[in-house]
Amino acid sequence: MIEILLIYAIIPLIKIGVIVLFLSGAIAYLTLLERKLIAHIQVRLGPMRVGWHGLLQPIADGLKFLLKEDIVPTKADALIFTIAPAISLLPAFLVFAVVPFGPPDMFEGPLRWILGWFIDDTATITRIAENAIASGGYVTDINIALLFVLSVSSVGILGVILGGWASNSKFPLLGALRSSAQMVSYEVALGFAIIGVLLVAGSLSLVEIVQNQQQQQVWYIFYQPVAFVLFFICGLAETNRLPFDLPEAETELVGGFHTEYSGFRFSLFFLAEYANMIAVSALGVILFLGGWLRPFPNSDWLSFLDFIPGVLWFLGKVFVFLYVFIWLRGTLPRFRFDQLMQYGWKIFLPVALGNVIVTAGVLLAFL
Amino acid sequence: MKTTVEESTVLDAKVLELNMGPQHPSTHGVLRVKLKLDGERVLDAECIIGYLHRGVEKISENRSYIKCVPYYDRTDYIAAVSNVYGYLLGVEAMMQIEVPKRAQYIRIMMTEFSRISSHLLWLATHAIDIGAMTVFLYCFREREEILKLFEALFGARLTTHAFRVGGLWKDLPAGFEEAARKFIDEFPERVDEYEQLLTKNRIWMARTKGIGVISGKEAIEWGLTGPVLRGSGMKHDVRKERPYGGYEEFDFDVPVGENGDTYDRYLVRLEEMHQSRRIIQQVLDRLPDGPVRGKAPKIVKPPVGEYYSGIDGPRGELGYYIVSDGSAQPFRVRIRPPTFISLQALRRLVRGHLMADVVAIIGTLDIVLGEVDR
User: Fold this and answer.
1) Which of the pair, A107 or B183, is modelled with greater confidence?
2) Chain A residue closest in CA terms to B136
3) Pick from A254, A329, A337: CB nearest B25
4) Looking at CA atoms only, how far is residue B369 from chain A in angstroms?
5) Hey, which bits of B252-374 come out as E strands?
6) Which residue has the higher pLDDT, B18 or B25?
7) Which of A86, A170, A332, B71 lies at a C-alpha separation of 20 to 30 Å from B42?
8) How close are the terminal C-alpha atoms of chain A, in Å?
9) Cross-sheet strand order for the sheet of B316-324
């Protein structure tokens, strides 16, 4: 009984708690990282006052958002206006339920050690510690994880659309229309880009995709370079980052869909954007950069790198992704709406489709 | 000019009326543009101005000729130096005051510095309107250096009250020439930096090429001047055609565009910065010694008559039409503000473009609302 409780309830709950806390902290410090990096790109210092080199700035920002007045415009649809930020934030967090941070046996050793303090029966401990649900570096590993990620993350768009519409104001409405069109069109190309990987990996489970990269001894970025480029660009568009940040193009639409939002509700949209950035980066790392694996996972001449735990490899790669996201923001101007749609439908989608066909053809012919 | 607007849109949707401004991040001040939108396509745009009207022209009628000067600082506050320059040239011409050579040269140098600073601010805001955030801060870095030079010579950074009737307030302070030389030596490198970020950038080109196209002939019909007109391929520069204040002694080119779109106007302004730099270089090389202030009476009383003094400001032909009735106060001063006139073309330029282009076109006209509203 205690065994089942541990495997299926207590340990996953602890993991969920840790991930949510870690993610919130990561988002908070991602905002600081962005401000610092962009500041240094632009020859200035960024936040310096709160804490050493502004290290406490995210906390100050969070407190400020909490203390600000929560304004609901009189003509807004109060109910939808209120829940829209939550709709936008929740899916961004939900995605991490299936994201593998580390290998399936990540917690085996620690579990044995901790459980040894409470349970005397070694057989039980072994059974718990060897159960992947308890010891894996993820909350859960479902066999349709990738579909889950795609479907859940599309729900997030709903929050943006509803928020823009419920504000009953013209700038947010335009922003919401833009974002819905943009996200829908780029999701198609993104999906096709991912199919290329699926064909190679032969699995929808994120854990298996990484394990297959280990078996095939190569990161899928080498099998699917085109898909990777497409995935990255569409990921930028999905998360509304420059050069695709049209829904909130502040110089045209003031604040875009969140113009009317203030205080904590605004901060929820803000968090959602950064959570989505991390989610897309994590997905990219899993699909193309071998998740928790080190470079060239099976070659021996790099085995001295093995002392670094898988989870650090994973987080490091995610960091690289995020860095590029921010870097681009400091460098590029913004696309125009019609150009964005043109690129999406006329270039990325055909290329993604072509990539799928070529991949499938090669697999059929040679394997 | 009467124009008809097509009211029906696709699927019989209603036209969306959108107020852009007066509080909007990219209307460059307090411009209000009433847009009629079909989706994102602009059917019509109406500029509503006057939020910054201070009655500068009327105030001038109640001040002595000398006391007017600081008010003109505040019309086009981005290029305050050129504004004062244009007015003083008019007053000096009416009074037939001889300005010493050294003062003339320094005036030209400072006016060209003011052009560079104004163009830098234009590039900064234009780039950030189109989303290139970093260029904004790079431009401000260089502009800061120019403002420091202004501060050293004039004692103020923005509203400088740069020149006096008959010359300058005082001579160049110690170390000024070295600082100016240092700036112009480093400047081309810095402009290359902006060019790296923008000129060949696919997104920048996509956002500016073919946007807000106006032919040279039409630009003249609209009364456009300055970089906007030159961007359309018309080689018009007051400095060349009616040289004033000693400009004929300096060697510089007038860059022109070909297509008259936003991208060409961008290139023209970038090249103008290089040309201004060339002029400053020549001034520094040939700066004569001597007094900086000619013989000017304490009370300026021009003879009865009228005079038009036009200079090539950073935004176009900046004119002062001064009418004197022989007293110590001008009877009438009429300013020809270049951006008031180019703003009229906004409606013509944006129609048919998308909403994002409106921002780009407002940016490319390089308007200053203080000057538009006066």
Assistant:
1) B183
2) A42
3) A254
4) 17
5) 305-313, 316-324, 332-336
6) B18
7) A332
8) 47
9) B305-313, B316-324, B332-336
Whether residue B373 has pLDDT greater than 70: yes
Tell if the CB–CB gap between A41 and B134 is shorter than 8 Å: yes
Q: The domain that contains B272 carries what CATH number?
A: 1.10.645.10
- Residue A248, pLDDT above cutoff 70: no
Tokens of B185: 């030596």
B251, part of any domain: yes
Closest residue, chain A, to B194 (C-alpha): A331
Closest by Cα among B193, B365, B139 to B262:
B365
* Chain B residues with a Cβ under 8 Å from any Cβ in chain A: 16, 18, 24-26, 39-40, 127-134, 136-138, 141, 197-198, 201, 203-204, 206-207, 354-359
- DSSP 8-state code for residue A197: H
Q: Residues B24-44: pLDDT tens digits? A: 766 677 888 888 887 778 888
Length of chain A: 367
Please determine, for residue B1, whether its predicted confidence score (pLDDT) is greater than 50: no
In a domain, B42, yes or no: no
Return the percentage of chain B with pLDDT > 90, whole number.
3
Are A251 and B40 a contacting pair at CB < 8 A?
no
Average pLDDT estimate for A135-156: 84
Task: Determine how β-strand B332-336 pairs with β-strand B316-324.
Answer: antiparallel
pLDDT (tens digit per residue) in B100-129: 888 889 989 999 999 999 999 998 888 888
CA–centroid distance for A152 within its chain: 12
* Residue A199 Ramachandran class (φ > 0 left, ψ -120 to 50 alpha, else beta): alpha
* B357 contacts on A by Cβ (under 8 Å): 336
Domain count, chain B: 1
Contact B207 A337 (CB under 8 A): no
**Minimal CA separation from A218 to chain B, in Å:** 33
* Distances from the Cα of B359 to the Cα of B40, B207, B328, angstroms: 13, 11, 44
Total CB pairs under 8 A between chain A and B: 84
- B87-99 as b/e: b if 16+ CB within 10 A: bbbbbbebbebeb
Q: Which two tokens stand for residue A141?
A: 């590993």
pLDDT above 70: percentage of residues in chain B: 96
B184 is in which domain, residue-wise? 56-338+356-373
Q: Is B319 part of any domain?
A: yes
Choose the most confident range, by mean pLDDT, from A113-127, A157-171, A291-305: A157-171
Residue of B nearest to A334 (CA): B131
pLDDT at A218 over 50: yes
Whether residue B294 is contained in a domain is answered as: yes
Overall average pLDDT of the B266-275 stretch: 90
Among the partner-chain residues A251, A330, A337, the one whose CB lies closest to the CB of B354 is A337
